[in-house]
Predict the 3D structure of the following.
Amino acid sequence: MAHIKAGGVAKGNKDSVSKRLGVKVYGGQYAAPGGIIVRQRGTKIHPGDGVGLGKDHTIYATAKGKVHFSVKRGQQFVSILPVHG
């Protein structure tokens, strides 16, 4: 009778579930009110006109229109340009 313990899983072989962060609606695309534009940790991208900032720093649309990314004084902003017509 062999006296060898059963092999276990290697330690440190675990990984966390990805959080699906990033830009969800890109520049030039249309967003509806309440639609998520960017999921982020911290304000890497700042809110501009026509968007709101959630408590987890998620940027979402408050108006319908075209998404526009811009850089002002070294900070990146996202805003919604209203659609005419």
DSSP finds no helices and eight strands in the chain. Strands lie at 22-23, 30-31, 36-39, 45-47, 51-53, 59-61, 65-72, 75-82. Residues 70 and 78 are 6 Å apart (CA to CA). The mean pLDDT is 92.
